[in-house]
Amino acid sequence: MTQLTGRPTIDDDVVHLTVPADGGYLGVLRTATAGLAARLQFALDEIEDLRIAVDEACAMLLAIATRDAELDCRFAVTDDALGVEVTVPTVRGATLPSESSFAWKVLTALTTDAAATASNGRATISLLSRRSSGW
């Protein structure tokens, strides 16, 4: 079972990517997101929404990341959903944008569920998108 979806993954279908916490590397995460969503047969607009949500989540985390940090991204695939968890070490006293901020409105509009935690010098944003069209 995955922490993201609460459901078993397909053959432990988890992809883990780590990239430098630098905007120049976000294309790698966007491409991985699109490829995995396409594998689940998400509609094109759902794929684009999820790519934008991952980009927005990463941008939030980059703003509070420590110098020379790495973005740790975990994708969990189930039969009808893609969960994405992005984690980064944070500078002391860092806080994520409030749930009433524009950035959070974007995340919740583009995904099925979005959540964030920050503790012990690390921040994590979790996203879940379910495929709307049936097989």
From TrEMBL:
InterPro entries: HATPase_C_sf. The keyword Kinase applies. It comes from the Bacteria. Keywords: Kinase, Transferase. The keyword Transferase applies. One of its GO terms (molecular function) is kinase activity. This is Serine/threonine-protein kinase RsbW.
